[in-house]
Amino acid sequence: MLSDEVRGQDRLYILPGLSLEGRETAWKWLKENWDLILEKCAGPILHSFVRGIVTPFSSHEKADEVEAFFASRDITAFARILKQSIEQIRIKARWVENIKQEESLEELVRELACVR
């Protein structure tokens, strides 16, 4: 994806193709290749990398992990995108927590599935 075989402007189209199941692998890849990503990407492409990899998460632990990773890095170029992405993770985490506390969830799923 970061090789010279992929044109710079085309790199931002690769991440949306990742499945949600690949988010852990993508996050690990981002952390391991951060310096190369900074070298090869700027502006909207960098924003796309950050947003595309971190926003699929939905736990406070992952939001904390993302914040910790970027805490020691210069995020000036994408600070707003990162803040918004972490906010989206925390919103989804709260939603997941609320759903887990829903007492009638099992009944609702049965009704929606027309299973009785």
List the helices and strands and how they pair.
Elements: H1 23-32, H2 34-40, H3 44-54, H4 60-71, H5 79-101, H6 105-113
Keywords: Aminopeptidase, Hydrolase, Protease
Organism: Camellia lanceoleosa
Protein name: Aminopeptidase M1
Fraction in beta strands: under 5%
Summarize the amount of helix as a percent range.
Answer: 55-70%
CA radius of gyration: 17 Å
Work out the helix count: 6
Structural class: mainly alpha
Count every beta strand, where a strand is a DSSP E run of 2 or more residues: 0
Quick one: biggest sheet?
A: none
N- to C-terminal separation?
48 Å
Q: Write the H/E string, N to C.
A: HHHHHH
Mean pLDDT reading: 84
Counted up, domains total: 1
Q: What would you call the shape?
A: elongated
What does this structure look like?
It contains 6 helices and no strands. The longest helix is centred in the last third of the chain and has 23 residues, at 79-101. It has helices at 23-32, 34-40, 44-54, 60-71, 79-101, 105-113. By secondary structure, it is an all-alpha fold. Helix 1 (23-32) packs across helix 3. It has one domain (8-113).
